[in-house]
Amino acid sequence: MINYIFKMFLTISSLLLSISVYFIAKGIYISDLGYPLFNNLNFIPSSIVYFVIVIVFTKISLLISNKIDSEQFDEGSFQSVEIANDAFLPSYLGYFFVSLSAASLSNTSNETFIFVFCIISVFIFCSRISYFNPVFLLLGYNFFYMVTNNNLK
Description:
The protein is mainly α. Helices cover about 60% and strands about 5% of the residues.
């Protein structure tokens, strides 16, 4: 069960920045979401709140990861270790471009964004390779490719 929750938080945290980009591009600020406490939050304050939400979800993902059983590998199990941050970045930028292009559409942009977002969410949830979240980089974490002795990456 904890693995499922962890996957959900990784999926959500990896896509929250694209949701934030969509909201900002559409001009949807915190004050528009019906919270009376935040009536005067426009572009900059809303952007900060959205980013804080992304950081909070990312931190929760990291806290949940501490509850998951760790895997042990024998010494010498890997041929090589390569940093993978640069390989994931183009895919992540694609999420931003989807958000921006959906925001630029006229009447059907909300429906289009929700549809595309749901499809991307399912793909990310089912594929471990797309859990990349650039906030991990800001927090000092990296992604790596590991090549085993059986040439599996």
